[in-house]
Amino acid sequence: xxxxxxxxxxxxxxxxxxxxxxxxxxxxxxxxxxxxxxxxxxxxxxxxxxxxxxxxxxxxxxxxxxxxxxxxxxxxxxxxxxxxxxxxxxxxxxxxxxxxxxxxxxxxxxxxxxxxxxxxxxxxxxxxxxxxxxxxxxxxxxxxxxxxxxxxxxxxxxxxxxxxxxxxxxxxxxxxxxxxxxxxxxxxxxxxxxxxxxxxxxxxxxxxxxxxxxxxxxxxxxxxxxxxxxxxxxxxxxxxxxxxxxxxxxxxxxxxxxxxxxxxxxxxxxxxxxxxxxxxxxxxxxxxxxxxxxxxxxxxxxxxxxxxxxxxxxxxxxxxxxxxxxxxxxxxxxxxxxxxxxxxxxxxxxxxxxxxxxxxxxxxxxxxxxxxxxxxxxxxxxxxxxxxxxxxxxxxxxxxxxxxxxxxxxxxxxxxxxxxxxxxxxxxxxxxxxxxxxxxxxxxxxxxxxxxxxxxxxxxxxxxxxxxxxxxxxxxxxxxxxxxxxxxxxxxxxxxxxxxxxxxxxxxxxxxxxxxxxxxxxxxxxxxxxxxxxxxxxxxxxxxxxxxxxxxxxxxxxxxxxxxxxxxxxxxxxxxxxxxxxxxxxxxxxxxxxxxxxxxxxxxxxxxxxxxxxxxxxxxxxxxxxxxxxxxxxxxxx
Length: 638
What we know:
Blueprint lengths: L1 H22 L26 E3 L2 H6 L5 H8 L3 E4 L6 E4 L8 E5 L2 E2 L20 E6 L13 E6 L6 E12 L3 E11 L3 E12 L4 E4 L7 E4 L5 E14 L2 E16 L12 E18 L2 E18 L4 E20 L3 E16 L6 E17 L3 E12 L2 E2 L3 E9 L6 E12 L3 H5 L11 E15 L4 E22 L5 E24 L2 E16 L17 E11 L2 E10 L2 E2 L7 E2 L2 E14 L2 E10 L7 E3 L2 E2 L4 E11 L1
Parallel strand pairs: 4-7
Antiparallel strand pairs: 1-6, 2-3, 4-5, 6-7, 8-9, 8-36, 9-10, 10-13, 11-12, 13-14, 14-15, 15-16, 16-17, 17-18, 18-19, 19-20, 20-21, 20-22, 22-23, 23-24, 24-25, 25-26, 26-27, 27-28, 28-29, 29-32, 30-31, 32-33, 33-36, 34-35
């Protein structure tokens, strides 16, 4: 894997420069392509809540992971075992397995655990991040009771050679660097990205669990190293566009023990290696379009615990094919027909026989109809076959209405039935797997209203209010069994009711610009089954209250931002007898963005957890206190 990684890095630099030389040899001044159309488009997801990040936020987070990007953008709870450790997210009171992650159409969820480790996904490897809630996620994949996080990269048509080189140094031995090269002509586009990071993570924390009085200790056995490289090439000819992308990654992480273990803890280590390749092809002909996605993801996870003499070597591969046909029937009716096939092969020392397979095939169709100029209705039906056995159909229906002719205010509502197939660990893990485990299923609905308004004096205002509800049945839960080991069962029913409010305000005056934004969420996620010590209690690790806000200002080359977030208490036992304390974090960022001709420089200083708060996202795994990062970026555009 290391040899492949080094060769790919070399190839991407050479090919990038050669492509750039060919694409930018003309003296013609090239600008980004602009397409203007008067034809009213058909949107299948307009009745559903969606959030799209802007390019500015992604650029600011180019040294971060996707979890950091999400935390600033939408109400999301992150379970994180410290910096660089396993990191998962949950949306709207659901579990981590109920949030799917896709990259250019490929699922990044492990077929073994059914979830993704977001600490292994750099923000640099996405041009756009879209969060699709509830029923909207059914257009991208199944089992997303909370939602789907869709990461995409985009071609850079008619764009001259652009080079960006960045470096970062921070507290606790953090060193990071990344490089991006891109260029595009009329019919060909190429980009290459490299991300590399290492950290000691030897921060201090307060151990309140092991001693009668809290004692300040220093984290050990927490070192991390990660190297990633991605290349993308796109071609277009006539009515077709083809995009191909390759992503190689390797990480080496020591895993610190919980603070319940004295001394340096257990010497645990985990190595992850990944190969992801995808090709997307789209053909547009009049009012019809056809799109095809084919790809493969290959992962290897090797866990070693020398003290316990445990070596767990796991390899998986998932082969994906998706096809979609969109067409317009008349002026107001849109039809979508889609098919998806995901076939996974896992080889693990923890499975009886060493190898297990999983095949999920789905097909369906969606109809959307524009009712006049302001209203639209969408209906989706999907059938899934799990290991060649047909399941109950899933469906989704939604309605969207614009409150004004300018379409800057709206109300929308939807209702969905969705299902999720068990992960391979649920079925076959030794010991404890349960081959008789059933699918989970969910009924969910939401009502959303909001507005976006741009005034003539460069003042932008926006706000949204969402009320959502979900009922999850046959929820899979791992619990200790009679033989002393844990086993999954369909014994959990969960009811969820919550609300989200987000708002934004921005403006500019001459060389100065400013912005304010924030969100707040309240989620009641309650067990509806189980014994009297569980039924009616809040689901573990789901905070009832979360809120966040950010204020930013820019004047000529100077910029600065201040952001704050609050997370309420999270119960860590089903009887709600124990919980993690609420916490609030304050962060500050400032810097200079300098431009001189074709070159640019960005110097950025970020200080996190200014009040040095002791807090945990997972019980007995402390997060770091006050930390600072200093970064420098050099940009060149031919």
